[in-house]
Design a protein that fits this description.
By secondary structure, this protein is α+β, with helices and mostly antiparallel strands. The protein has a single domain, classed as Folate-binding fold, CATH 3.30.2270.10. The strands form 2 sheets. Strands 3-4-5-6 form a 4-stranded antiparallel sheet. Strands 1-2 form a two-stranded antiparallel sheet. The longest helix has 9 residues.
């Protein structure tokens, strides 16, 4: 079982959450001014890295709020969670830390 820490409710079972895609994707200011390729890039293409990745999650069976998280896509461990609007954590600092206090182990 994977445990996920909601920044509002605390640690909960993964079944309470819905993955909402890559975090910090900014909608174009003038979508009608984009070419078809630029619009397709915005809609469909994401970074999908191996390792640390910023993601948006929705606590669908809890407080029903969105939040961001940094998760390692190799180990599934969450390195940290943060509220929408909070500053983005530095991925280099998180990857160099041997054990981060917000790590949540997959069980």
């Amino acid at each position: 079982m994977l445990l996920i820490e909601c920044p509002y409710c605390g640690v909960r079972d993964e079944s309470e959450f819905t993955y909402s895609g890559e975090a910090h994707i900014v909608r174009p200011l003038e979508p009608s001014a984009l070419s078809d390729k630029e619009w397709a890039d915005y809609l469909f293409y994401r970074s999908n890295p191996k390792g640390l990745h910023r993601e948006m999650w929705y606590h669908s069976a809890g407080c029903r709020r969105y939040f961001n998280a940094v998760r390692d896509t190799v180990t599934y461990k969450f390195k940290c969670v943060y509220k929408i609007g909070d500053s983005q954590p530095n991925l280099d600092e998180l990857s160099s830390s041997a054990k981060h206090p917000a790590d949540v182990e997959a069980k």
